[in-house]
Structure formats: structure tokens, C-alpha cells
């Protein structure tokens, strides 16, 4: 009988414990915070660039003028040039071997003969058509190349070496006839080609460097450029200091469509733009500009007064924008805004000029605020109470705005990239084609595309890295399924982008890079990620404590007692 | 028809046709500037030239029935206004044979000051800016001059046809002050908009509230679906419209936040929308400190399309910004102790009211006027002399006009009363229609709403639309709706039943409010009483606001008086209402209590299952419990072993 009851008692005790032990995982599961599994390892691999590296391939087609038979071996030229370029392209100034492997710039050179003679009018004799100082600017050459593929036309010239950089992906190199041999051509090209891309490579490496080592470099040009966004808002504001002096108006709509539209259409592959404009009156400055007076005894007081002017110093420029009073923000959109302001000072503060740090007038009376916009100060003659900026008068203003816009978008001046090139042995004169009406050459456009690809890929990777860090550091964070999907899609887009880059399909790579950045940011900034506390663990324990403690006490006591009894019985048996 | 000759006028200022600049009249012929046309301000002229008259027709206007003829420009045929042929009310006879020309201005500002019968002072600022060619659906307009860009962007982005936003603090006292100068609104924030119909309409409304919330630093984003309604009869567009076209192309959304406080952070962005901001013109008076030290304050933004020609083929977008305050100079003086007791209490000057001065007119405004509505009786003195005095809407009313464009420098308007003591006027003239709304009932469970609507007109039956939005947490019972006229209940089947049309939308918990809209014909000289009962809902604890014991605000009801030509809006106060409030520490208490009960239950059950309870063994027991000897022996045995045992109590 006693054996029986003991058994049943133990059986009951064991079944209680079994139920509790079986129920514990269920309880744990049901009160758990939902966290979709994120691909942490893959993100980690990306952020250390183990999965893939950035490759920006370029292809040069050399069109070498020839008279039927080659004067020297083209094949030898291309192979030795390619070797030369590969080494110099991947030379980094920072000497960071890691970066060297992350961002690579493979280059390929091919050559073909260029039949540039034609029949002379007199008879069947062939002549060099482009010998001498012939006008090359209007020469029509077929151009069907894509981003990354450039044509260089090489032909002899009577006396000196000249390089003509055109607005499309072409350059014409003229080499003096007395130096027309493989050695010279190779040397010149080996110096010229890397210098086309030196700036760009530096920037791209900078991006990678900053993201991998979380270091910030003090590069003014990178600080100027706005962060990538698929859409930018451009706002033109005419700021009138005091409308009681003069009422101003402008023909901005016509000016925008004439001077700015071509540029925006060209760059719309990279980002889209919305444009609006406004006129703000009573746009006073928050500070008093400095006054410069003259005391020349040779002329009378009135003339002295007429010469006096107000000026802004470089120190006062950061305080120029009165963002509290000037309605510059947009109420409807959260995309980044670029502001371009044409400022007409009030009568008592005009004329208003800008001094540079040496106290000399700046050339355009304009300045740029990095990542914000540009400002032009104009001192029109407002003596008759009204003034209207006509489309012609807006032309110089819009030119400044466009150049400021180029800076804000990160378009690198191609001319400045080449100007310091001076070969020791051979002097080369460099000519540029007159700037196109779109205000951006294909060389610059390609540069912009590659730069934005690099920037987007690097930014997407670092966003994903921050996301995975955040999720792993805060265990109470809810991670829903759609976050996981976004992250996986972003990784896929990154992969596709890198593959397209390697295949030199830059347009496709840009599309994928855009998708990657948008997906990674939509995952990072998802509103469900913000509400951190669904039910933090402390709360969970606090709530279940009043249940668990009183239940577990009798259970534990019963177990202890049972164990003690077993021991006692063993002792008795012995 | 013979040749039409055009006359050319000479005068200090010539009024011309807005389209073709044909001369029409001069400032000398103006009788009154205080008229309301179909689309904005209108002037009454003695004589007008170069116009053609249309056929005569009868029209009901705010001031009664008139026979009028439309007049149009003889050159470009644009409709300019109308001519009064016959007025049926004696007081309006002076208009006969006179002309109304409607004003078309791109930018204007005006300040109207009206001393009220109880010694208070109504000041009404009005700014109007018009924008050409942006009033149509889908119109894209990106280049702004005077029209505020922020509002233009919002209207375009969220495809709004009309937009009305009002911030109000305090209550407009209809019985003392008469009707307000602009459409009034209840306390708090009220927003209504006609949006162009498209598949994104509801998203647009949501985004619209969010954008306005950001722009005006107000909690407009809390107008969610539980506060959004689509009124069927009220809130007709102010701009030109015909009903079939309107309902095909646009939908109305409306919402209000009665609990919203209005403060300087709402005023600052409002001022920033003005072309001259608060630097010049009448807006330079806008001193937040003084504006909010008032009995009533209402600030609004109205964006609406207006017609440019008679066929309305060309429309402009107009933004009308108004700000009304009712200031109490009597009380302000008492507080400041400026004057000796009982003397000159209702005297005022602009500088005293706002602690600021108008230095000059806004140079961007085409017209900048200060209007003072001169009281009909009383002994007073106005300084300085007005540029012009014109007739108001009634015979005895005169309006003094100060043209700020003409005499811009330091206008210091003041008014002095030659009276030893200020006496409150007990004999106020009541407006024709006004109303009171009450909550009835007591306790935590049920309540009721009661509305008294007064019609003071001696011989007119006045049709009105009563509109009331009741939040879902008050559950209305439509069958309890009762109507009384002068205290006598009227059966819904009787022909005197005043409700001619009733639209009722029942509430859905947590998703939409209840809406009552009723077309009521108010009998002449009567009090109509509507009453309806409701249940109060016990809310979930997360649904209570941070200050639950303060109660919940119920938005104001709106009464729209329908006349054939125009509508008067008459809005009533917001009410506070208390709902049953729970103890907010309850959830945790409940959890703890439940857990304790469960643990107790578990503990005793567990003990019952694992222990055996046995009576103590005595000699008597032994004899009685003969049958249980085996077991007892067992216990004794065990006791002998020296271990205490708990034995399962088995069923025997």
C-alpha cells in the first residue's frame, strides 16, 4: 500500500514538472519579441569587402592615323601601354593596400588604324588631310561609345603636340611629325590617360576609405556635395531687402527653361529634380554689413560717397542666411532642397559686395554654401522704384547658379583635372571644346555616374552595417519580416550592381546601386524599427514573477523532500 | 442697337474694368465700400459709365429681397457687378438705382475696427492675395511671387480645390456682438477642404493634415479617420461652383480639434505667409502679446478659386487670411490702472491696443485701408479725421475710411467717449438666428444633448442646416431624437414637423464619429429644441488622453442659415464632456491580483494532490475506526521509523 502511494505521489510530481518543463519553451516562444533573421554574416562580409570589390573598368580605343601600312606595331604599343596604365591606375597615394584591392580600376587598350586620308581633288593621289594646323573642332567623328569606353584619335601634326578634348567621349592627340614613333606616343599616352581619372579615383578611394575605417577626411569638394537622393528640389528665391525702396521681379520661369533645363535633363539619369521659385520681400540680413568709405581729397564729397560701398567678409558669410525669417523650407516634401538665392540688398545697404580674406572683391559677387545652395548678390539700379530682371540679365546669374549646382551635385571640373599636366620631355598644348549648352560634358557626366555608383554602394553597405549593429545591440527591438526582405533585396541589388560594374555596364550598375541605397535606407528608417519596446524582458519578468514564485515554492519543496526521503531510504537499506 | 460710345473719366482715382481697363467710375462716386460681392469685396457706386445692363431678376441677399440687373463691361462683356432696381425693405431703399462693382485686386490688406455694444472692440485684419491660372485641377504652378509658396505647394500637391483652416480661442458671443465679420468657427482648430476626386483622395487628406500641422505647429495630424467627416449639406464651397460639376469632381473632408490651444507659435507661421510679414502695413500691429490678451481670437486661412469672367472659364486662386480679435479696453485699463476710475474706460487708440504703430502701408499691397465702423449712437470723438466717410450696410451706419497708401505715416487712430462712466448696454439687438447647446443627464452611464435654436425674425420662416459631429465614444440613439417648438413637442408625422431633411451617419467604434445633419425650417419668432440621448462608452485604458479627468471635448455644432443667394455661418461653442475614467494603475494591479489568485489555487490543489490529511490517532478512534486499522498501523509503523510521512489520500 505504502509503495503504491509513494509511486503515485512521485508520478504526480513528475507529471507536474514535465508539464512545466514542456510549457516553458512555449511560454518563452509566445512572449518573445519577434525578430526576423537578418543576414548578419553576409552584411559583415560586405562591410569588410570580402564578398565583392568595386571595379571600374575602362576601355580606350586608339585610332592611329596610318597610311595603309603601320609605321610601327600597334599591337606592341597597346600591350606595353596597357601594362603601364594598369600599374599607374592602381597606384594609391594613401598606400592603403586594402583599398587597392577594394577599389580597382582595370584598363584595356585596343587600337585600330585610322584611315584619314581622302582623295584629293586634283587626282588619285592620297594626301594627309589633317596635317598641319587644320581646324579639328568641327571634325565629325562617329561616337557610339558608352560610359567607360573612350576614343583617342592620334594623328601627326607639323610642329607641336596638341591635345583636343571634346565634349563627348573623344580626344584628339596631335603629335609633331618629327616625334611620330611608338615610344613617344606610348609615353605621352601613359601620362595622359591616368591624369584623366586621377581626381575621380581619388574621390572613389576616399569614399571607400571613409566607410571602411570610419575616418573623415577634410576634403572640401566632398564636403560640398550633397548626399545622394533620387530627387532633389531646387528652389530659386529672389530676396528683396526692402520693397519700399523698390519692387523687384524676375523672368525666372523663362530663365530656368533656357539656361538650366538642358543640364537637368542630362543629369536626370542620376537624379530627378523639381524646380520652383519664389520672391520674398523684407528679407533683411541678421547683421549689419561693413561699410567702406572713401576720403579722396581730389574729388568732392558726393563722388566719395558714390564710391562707398558695403561689404561682407568671409567671416560674416555663414550668418548670411536668415533661415528663421526667409521662407525657404518646403512644406510638402522631405527630399533634400538646394536653394539658390538672388539677393537684392535694401537701399541703405547697397551696393553690397563680398570681400575675400585678402579684402579683394570676389569675381562674381557670389558664394556657395556646402550642401545647401548658392547665393548671388546683385545691386541693380532701382532708382525708379521697380526693377525687373529680364532673361538676358539673368544669364550671368544663372551661369553662376549652374556652376554652383554642379558643385553641389558633385560634378568634377574636367579642365582642372588636366591642367597641371606638364610632361618634362614633351610639352603638350591642351585645347578644350567650348562647353556644351547642357553645361556638362560626357567626360564629366561619366565621372559623375561612376562617382555616384561608388558613393551609393558604399553608403548602402554602411547603412546595412549600422542596421545589423543596431539590431544585434538592442535585443528588445522588433524586426518584422518586411525588414528582412528589404535587407535581402538590398544585398541582391548590391551584388547585381558590382556584377554590372565589372561588365562595364555603368547605367545598369547605377540603377542597382540606387535600388540598394533606397532599400537599405527604407529598412533602416522603417517606422516599425523605432518602436523599440514591444515588451521588454524586464517587464516580462516583472509581470510573471507573482505567478511563478508562489507556484514554484511548493513544487521545489516537494522535490527536495522527495530527494531527502530517497536518500534516507538508501541509508536505511544499507 | 446703335453705336456704343465710351466715356472717359477724370478724377482723383478712376476705377476700370479689370480685363480691358475701360473706365467705369471714380472714387468720388463711391457711396459705400463695405459690400460683400459674390467673390470678395464690392463697392456701391452712385454712377457708373460704359456698362451694359442685363435682364432684371429677384435675388435674396443678406439684407433682404432685391430686384437687380447684372452689369457688364460694354467693351469686353465681362460681368462687373449689378445694379439695384428695387429694394423691398424700407431700410435698403437708398440702394435703388445704384451700382455694385466687384473689386479685383491681386493683393490688398484692410483692418476693420468695430466698437461693440458692450464696450469691447472688434478688430478684423484681412489680407487677400490672388494668383493667376492655378485654380484648375492638376494645374502645375511652380513660380510664386506674392502668393505664399508653402500654401501653393500644399494645395497643388494634395490636389485641393478649396481649403479652409481656422484657429480660434475663446467664444464669439452672438447675443452680444451680432454676427462676426468673417465666417466664425468654434473653439480650437477647424479644417475643411474640398479635394479633387482621385484614387488617392484619402491619402491626400491625411497628408494635407500632416503638412498643415508641420506648417502651423499645430496638432492637425491628429485629425485621423475617427475625426474626419464628409458633411452632406454644410460647408459648401465658397468659390464659384455648380452642384453637379462639384460632386462629380470633388469631395469634402472636414475635421476639428476642439481641445487645441492657439498660441503665438501658430501666429508666427501665419504672419510669415503675408507678403510684407509684420514689417509694414497693418500687419505691423500684430503683436502676439496683445492679441492673445483678448476675449476672442480667431485666425484663418482660406484658399479658394474665384472667377475672372462671367462664364468662369478663367479662374484665379485666392488666399484670404483673416484675423479677428475682440479686445476689452475697459478691462485692460482696469488692469493697467491707466485712467482714473470710471472715466474714459472705453477710450482706445491703436497704440494702446497693440503697443505698436502702423508706420506705412505695405508697399506690395495695391490697397491698404483702415475702416472704422462708427457707432450709431453715443457721444464720442474720433481722431484724426477720416479720409472718407461712406455708408454702411444699414441706413444709420457710417464707416470712416483711412487710406494708408495716401497718408502712410504714423496713423494714430483713437476714439474718446465723452461720458462720465461706462454703462453696459442691456438693450442689445439680437441676431436673427442663434442657438445654445447643452449636455443633459447625470452619472457615468447616460446623457443627452439639447439644442435650442432661436429665430427672432417676426414674420419669416428661416431654413437652416444644423450640423453636429459627436465622437464615437458617445453612442447616440436616433430614436430618442425629439423636436419641440416653443416647448411643445412636435410629432414627426405632423405637417409642422420642422425637420425637412435628415442625414444621420451612425458612429463606428474607433473608426468614425456620428454625424447629424438636419435641414430645419425655423418658424418665425420661435425656439426650436432638439434633444437626443446617448450612452457613454467605457474606453480602453490606452485611449484616454494624458489628462483624462479633465474630460473630453465635443466639437462645436454648426448652423448654416440658407438664403437663396448666400449663406451665413453660425457656429456654436465646443463643450467639455466627462467620460468614466478608470484607475490607470489597474492593468498591473489586475495582473498581480490574478497571478496571486492563480498561485493560491495552484498551491492548494498541489497540496491536496500530494498530501494526505489524517486525523490524530487516539484510543477512542482506534475503537471506532476498526476498519482502518491496517492503514493506521502503517502510520504507526512509519512513525516508529522516525520519518514523517505524507501519504496520498486514496479513495477507499
Automatic annotation (TrEMBL), chain A:
Membership in a protein family: Belongs to the PIGS family.
Pfam families: PIG-S
Keywords: Endoplasmic reticulum, Glycoprotein, GPI-anchor biosynthesis, Membrane, Transmembrane, Transmembrane helix
Lipid bilayer topology: Multi-pass membrane protein
GO cellular-component term (any): GPI-anchor transamidase complex
Ranges that cross the membrane: 12-28, 541-560
Location relative to the cell: Endoplasmic reticulum membrane
Pathway per the UniProt entry: Glycolipid biosynthesis; glycosylphosphatidylinositol-anchor biosynthesis
BP terms from Gene Ontology: attachment of GPI anchor to protein; GPI anchor biosynthetic process
Signal peptide: none
Protein's name according to its UniProt entry: 541_t:CDS:1
Recorded superkingdom: Eukaryota
From TrEMBL, chain B:
Organism encoding this protein: Ambispora gerdemannii
The UniProt record lists the keyword Cytoplasm: no
Region forming the signal peptide: none
Entry annotated with the keyword Transmembrane: yes
Domain Yippee: residue ranges: 13-110
Listed InterPro entries: PIG-T, Yippee
Keyword set, alphabetical order: Membrane, Transmembrane, Transmembrane helix
Region annotation Disordered: where it falls in the sequence: 627-652
Pfam family, one: Gpi16
GO CC entries: GPI-anchor transamidase complex
Domain of life: Eukaryota
Residues spanning the membrane: 588-609
Single Gene Ontology MF annotation: metal ion binding
Name of this protein: 11666_t:CDS:1
GO BP term (any one): attachment of GPI anchor to protein
Amino acid at each position: 500500500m505504502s509503495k503504491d502511494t509513494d509511486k503515485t505521489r512521485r508520478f504526480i510530481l513528475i507529471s507536474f514538472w514535465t508539464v512545466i518543463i514542456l510549457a516553458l519553451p512555449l511560454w518563452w516562444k509566445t512572449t518573445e519579441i519577434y525578430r526576423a533573421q537578418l543576414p548578419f554574416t553576409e552584411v559583415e562580409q560586405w562591410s569588410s569587402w570580402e564578398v565583392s570589390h568595386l571595379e571600374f573598368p575602362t576601355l580606350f580605343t586608339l585610332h592611329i592615323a596610318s597610311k595603309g601600312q603601320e609605321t610601327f606595331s600597334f599591337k606592341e604599343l597597346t600591350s606595353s601601354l596597357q601594362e603601364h596604365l594598369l600599374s599607374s591606375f592602381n597606384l594609391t597615394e594613401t598606400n592603403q593596400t586594402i583599398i587597392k584591392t577594394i577599389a580597382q580600376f582595370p584598363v584595356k587598350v585596343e587600337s585600330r588604324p585610322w584611315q584619314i586620308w581622302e582623295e584629293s581633288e586634283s587626282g588619285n593621289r592620297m594626301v594627309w588631310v589633317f596635317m598641319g594646323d587644320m581646324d579639328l573642332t568641327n571634325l565629325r567623328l562617329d561616337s557610339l561609345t558608352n560610359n567607360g569606353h573612350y576614343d583617342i584619335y592620334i594623328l601627326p601634326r607639323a610642329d607641336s603636340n596638341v591635345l583636343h578634348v571634346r565634349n563627348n567621349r573623344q580626344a584628339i592627340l596631335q603629335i609633331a611629325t618629327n616625334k611620330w614613333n611608338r615610344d613617344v606616343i606610348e609615353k605621352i599616352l601613359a601620362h595622359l590617360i591616368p591624369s584623366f581619372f586621377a581626381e575621380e579615383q581619388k574621390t572613389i578611394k576616399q569614399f571607400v576609405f571613409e566607410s571602411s575605417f570610419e575616418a573623415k577626411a577634410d576634403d572640401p569638394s566632398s564636403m560640398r556635395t550633397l548626399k545622394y537622393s533620387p530627387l532633389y528640389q531646387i528652389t530659386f528665391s529672389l530676396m528683396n531687402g526692402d520693397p519700399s525702396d523698390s519692387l523687384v521681379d524676375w523672368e525666372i520661369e523663362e530663365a530656368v527653361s533656357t539656361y538650366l533645363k538642358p543640364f537637368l535633363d542630362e543629369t536626370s539619369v542620376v537624379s530627378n529634380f523639381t524646380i520652383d521659385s519664389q520672391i520674398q520681400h523684407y528679407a533683411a540680413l541678421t547683421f549689419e554689413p561693413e561699410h567702406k568709405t572713401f576720403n579722396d581729397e581730389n574729388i568732392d564729397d558726393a563722388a566719395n560717397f558714390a564710391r562707398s560701398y558695403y561689404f561682407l567678409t568671409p567671416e560674416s558669410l555663414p550668418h548670411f542666411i536668415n533661415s528663421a525669417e526667409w521662407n525657404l523650407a518646403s512644406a510638402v516634401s522631405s527630399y533634400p532642397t538646394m536653394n539658390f538665392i538672388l539677393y537684392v540688398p535694401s537701399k541703405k545697404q547697397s551696393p553690397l559686395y563680398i570681400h575675400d580674406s585678402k579684402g579683394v572683391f570676389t569675381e562674381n559677387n557670389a558664394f556657395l554654401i556646402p550642401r545647401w545652395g548658392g547665393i548671388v548678390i546683385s545691386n541693380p539700379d532701382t532708382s525708379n522704384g521697380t526693377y525687373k530682371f529680364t532673361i538676358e540679365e539673368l544669364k550671368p546669374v544663372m551661369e553662376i547658379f549652374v556652376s554652383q549646382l554642379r558643385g553641389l551635385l558633385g560634378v568634377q571640373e574636367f579642365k582642372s583635372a588636366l591642367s597641371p599636366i606638364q610632361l618634362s620631355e614633351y610639352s603638350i598644348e591642351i585645347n578644350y571644346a567650348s562647353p556644351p549648352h547642357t553645361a556638362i560634358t560626357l567626360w564629366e557626366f561619366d565621372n559623375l555616374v561612376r562617382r555616384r555608383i561608388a558613393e551609393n554602394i558604399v553608403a548602402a553597405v554602411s547603412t546595412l552595417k549600422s542596421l545589423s549593429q543596431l539590431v544585434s545591440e538592442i535585443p528588445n527591438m522588433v524586426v518584422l519580416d518586411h525588414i528582412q526582405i528589404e535587407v535581402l533585396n538590398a544585398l541582391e541589388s548590391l551584388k547585381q550592381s558590382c556584377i554590372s560594374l565589372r561588365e562595364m555596364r555603368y547605367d545598369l550598375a547605377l540603377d542597382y546601386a540606387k535600388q540598394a541605397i533606397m532599400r537599405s535606407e527604407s529598412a533602416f528608417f522603417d517606422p516599425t524599427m523605432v518602436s523599440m519596446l514591444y515588451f521588454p524582458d524586464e517587464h516580462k519578468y516583472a509581470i510573471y514573477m507573482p505567478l511563478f514564485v508562489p507556484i514554484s515554492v511548493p513544487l521545489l519543496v516537494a522535490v527536495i523532500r522527495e530527494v531527502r526521503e530517497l536518500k534516507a531510504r538508501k541509508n536505511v537499506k544499507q | 442697337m446703335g453705336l456704343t460710345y465710351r466715356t472717359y473719366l477724370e478724377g482723383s482715382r478712376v476705377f476700370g474694368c479689370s480685363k480691358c481697363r475701360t473706365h467705369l467710375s471714380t472714387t468720388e462716386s463711391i457711396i459705400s465700400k463695405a459690400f460683400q460681392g459674390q467673390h470678395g469685396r464690392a463697392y456701391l457706386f452712385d454712377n457708373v459709365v460704359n456698362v451694359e445692363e442685363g435682364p432684371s431678376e429677384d435675388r435674396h441677399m443678406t439684407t433682404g429681397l432685391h430686384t437687380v440687373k447684372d452689369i457688364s463691361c460694354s467693351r469686353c462683356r465681362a460681368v462687373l457687378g449689378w445694379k439695384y432696381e428695387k429694394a423691398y425693405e424700407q431700410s435698403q431703399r437708398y440702394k435703388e438705382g445704384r451700382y455694385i462693382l466687384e473689386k479685383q485686386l491681386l493683393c490688398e490688406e484692410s483692418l476693420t475696427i468695430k466698437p461693440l455694444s458692450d464696450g469691447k472692440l472688434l478688430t478684423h485684419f484681412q489680407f487677400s492675395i490672388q494668383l493667376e491660372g492655378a485654380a484648375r485641377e492638376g494645374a502645375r504652378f511652380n513660380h510664386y511671387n506674392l502668393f505664399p509658396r508653402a500654401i501653393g505647394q500644399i494645395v497643388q500637391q494634395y490636389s485641393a480645390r478649396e481649403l479652409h483652416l481656422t484657429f480660434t480661442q475663446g467664444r464669439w458671443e452672438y447675443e452680444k456682438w451680432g454676427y462676426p465679420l468673417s465666417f466664425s468657427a468654434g473653439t480650437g482648430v477647424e479644417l475643411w477642404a474640398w479635394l479633387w476626386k482621385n484614387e488617392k483622395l484619402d491619402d491626400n487628406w491625411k497628408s494635407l493634415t500632416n503638412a498643415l500641422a508641420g506648417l502651423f505647429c499645430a496638432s492637425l495630424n491628429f485629425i485621423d479617420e475617427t475625426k474626419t467627416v464628409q458633411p452632406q449639406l454644410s460647408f459648401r464651397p465658397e468659390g464659384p461652383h455648380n452642384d453637379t460639376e462639384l460632386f462629380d469632381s470633388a469631395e469634402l473632408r472636414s475635421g476639428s480639434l476642439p481641445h487645441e490651444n492657439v498660441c503665438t507659435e501658430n501666429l508666427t507661421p501665419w504672419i510669415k505667409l503675408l507678403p510684407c510679414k509684420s514689417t509694414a502695413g497693418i500687419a505691423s500691429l500684430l503683436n502676439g502679446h496683445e492679441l492673445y490678451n483678448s476675449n476672442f481670437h480667431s485666425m484663418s486661412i482660406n484658399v479658394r478659386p474665384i472667377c475672372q469672367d462671367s462664364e468662369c472659364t478663367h479662374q484665379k486662386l485666392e488666399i484670404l487670411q483673416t484675423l479677428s480679435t475682440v479686445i476689452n479696453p475697459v478691462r485692460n485699463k482696469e488692469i493697467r490702472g491707466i485712467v482714473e476710475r470710471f472715466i474714459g474706460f472705453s477710450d482706445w487708440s491703436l497704440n494702446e491696443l497693440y503697443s505698436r504703430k502702423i508706420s506705412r502701408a505695405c508697399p506690395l499691397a495695391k490697397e491698404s485701408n483702415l475702416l472704422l465702423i462708427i457707432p450709431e449712437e453715443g457721444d464720442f470723438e474720433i481722431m484724426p479725421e477720416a479720409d472718407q466717410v461712406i455708408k454702411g450696410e444699414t441706413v444709420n451706419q457710417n464707416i470712416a475710411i483711412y487710406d494708408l497708401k495716401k497718408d502712410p505715416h504714423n496713423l494714430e487712430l483713437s476714439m474718446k467717449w465723452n461720458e462720465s462712466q461706462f454703462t453696459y448696454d442691456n438693450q442689445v439687438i439680437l441676431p436673427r438666428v442663434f442657438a445654445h447647446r447643452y449636455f443633459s443627464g447625470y452619472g457615468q452611464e447616460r446623457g443627452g444633448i439639447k439644442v435650442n435654436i432661436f429665430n427672432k425674425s417676426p414674420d419669416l420662416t428661416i431654413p437652416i442646416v444644423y450640423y453636429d459631429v459627436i465622437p464615437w465614444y458617445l453612442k447616440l440613439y436616433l430614436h430618442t431624437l425629439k423636436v419641440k417648438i416653443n416647448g411643445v413637442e412636435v410629432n414627426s408625422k405632423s405637417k409642422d414637423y420642422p425637420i425637412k431633411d435628415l442625414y444621420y451617419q451612425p458612429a463606428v467604434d474607433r473608426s468614425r464619429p456620428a454625424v447629424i445633419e438636419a435641414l430645419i425650417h425655423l418658424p418665425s419668432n420661435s425656439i426650436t429644441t432638439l434633444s437626443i440621448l446617448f450612452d457613454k462608452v467605457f474606453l480602453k485604458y490606452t485611449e484616454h488622453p494624458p489628462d483624462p479627468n479633465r474630460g473630453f471635448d465635443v466639437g462645436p455644432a454648426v448652423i448654416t442659415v440658407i438664403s437663396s443667394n448666400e449663406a451665413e455661418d453660425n457656429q456654436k461653442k465646443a463643450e467639455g464632456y466627462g467620460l468614466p475614467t478608470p484607475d490607470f494603475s489597474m492593468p498591473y494591479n489586475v495582473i498581480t491580483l490574478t497571478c496571486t489568485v492563480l498561485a493560491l489555487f495552484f498551491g492548494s490543489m498541489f497540496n491536496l494532490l500530494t498530501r494526505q490529511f489524517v486525523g490524530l490517532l487516539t484510543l477512542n478512534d482506534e475503537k471506532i475506526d476498526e476498519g482502518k486499522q491496517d492503514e493506521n498501523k502503517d502510520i504507526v509503523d512509519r512513525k516508529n521509523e522516525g520519518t514523517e510521512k505524507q501519504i496520498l489520500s486514496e479513495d477507499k
